[in-house]
Amino acid sequence: MNVSEAKAEVFWLAFKGMPKKDQNTIVQKLLTDDDFLHDFTDIRVIESRRNEPSRPLSDYLADRSCRGWS
Question: How far apart are CA 44 and CA 39, in angstroms?
Answer without folding.
Answer: 9
